[in-house]
């Protein structure tokens, strides 16, 4: 049954319809979890004993950073699938994920910098995580730039898949080299706070937010994939039939 | 189908590329000139304090090497793509990744090696301590082939594009980061009199890794670009 589901999902028309039905579910559960997470995070969780209320930015920052890495892995896996089996839907997933992933990476960087100002006294420090996150953003931007530069979108999807795979091999190397570089060059002016092991009252909103971000990604990537699919298949019969039906 | 063995195909391609490069000597000199010029710009920009120049020296040499490698990368497949010989390589009976390796090797000999030869001179100009100069040269020998190999994937992906150059830098510069970090750190440590085997092991590992992984990726990218 599962195999048949995946087999059917390979068909653009079936995917378009199922995705259209899934989006509202993703969206409503995202909104519910977001509201719950924000309420617990902003009002119901205790302020940190050192950082006071500025710790609350964590509830956006940390899930966004998790998402930035999660989406890259999703992108690389769908890239691999589309290179090996040439499935149209996964090709579309690669590029639809790239823009969402880049936005989450940017969000993580921006909130991190807002958090850094009161904590470290600087908008930006060349901390290992910040640096690797910045490089991750460049990798995302490279993928988007390459995709928009190639006119034939099927060719573009395959080129981008290779790039995503090259990137996924390199990300651990980049991450560890940056960490290594940081421990050697770290100046004493930036003292990182000692993180107390997280209390359950802070962990719950964090996990709620993480889950809601994942659902948001699910909803947005399906929307983008549907739009991209329509654009690519605009001259095929199923799209024409659908449009005619909608006109009537 | 083909009577040519793989080894002779490899050497023939290498010889062909080196001959082509030798016939266009002025193009060969350009990356080297660029390398020297960029390095010379830094003291002008940051002031002539010898201590300061010495502190940034290894980083400056390596960033300049990175940019020079990037500048010359675009030429790796461009001419072959335009005159159609790249398609002939794709059609040949030999594995494309091996042929790619020959082209990368030729490219590195033409653009990477001159940097290596010019490096001691620039190191002197930037007050890099004498005992660190062999380390600098060794990092260049180990590091610049990695740049050419990683770069070859980016070039293969962008060779069919009209404005590939800018995108190419966006694609490959983030991937160059580990080489830059370990190479400059080795030179800095050597200047401070510390042992540097760890950095060399890692640089060698990156060279071996990219030697194995980059050519197939380049071959696949070339197929996509030519499709």
Portion in strands of chain A: under 5%
Biggest interface between chains? A-B, 27 and 27 residues
Main sheet specs of chain A: none
Order of helices and strands of chain B: HHHHHHHHH
Q: What is the gyration radius of chain B calculated from CA atoms? A: 18 Å
Unreliable spans of chain B: none
Say how many strands of chain B there are.
0
The residue ranges of chain A in which pLDDT falls below 50 over 5 or more consecutive positions are 186-194
Biggest sheet overview of chain B:
none
Cα-atom Rg of chain A, whole angstroms? 21 Å
Annotation field: number of helices of chain B: 9
Mean pLDDT of chain B: 88
Mean pLDDT of chain A: 83
Residue fraction in strands of chain B? under 5%
What best-fitting shape of chain A do the alpha-carbon axes yield? Answer: globular
Relative helix content of chain A: over 70%
Proportion of helical residues of chain B: over 70%
Shape descriptor of chain B reads elongated
Q: How would you describe this protein?
A:
The complex is a heterodimer of chains A (248) and B (227). Helix content of chain A is 81%, strand content 0%. Chain A is globular, with a radius of gyration of 21 Å. The relative contact order of chain A is 0.16. With 227 residues, chain B is an all-alpha fold. Chain B is built from 9 helices and no strands. The longest helix of chain B has 30 residues. Chain B is elongated, with a radius of gyration of 18 Å. Chains A and B meet through helix 5 and helix 6 of A and helix 7, helix 8 and helix 9 of B.
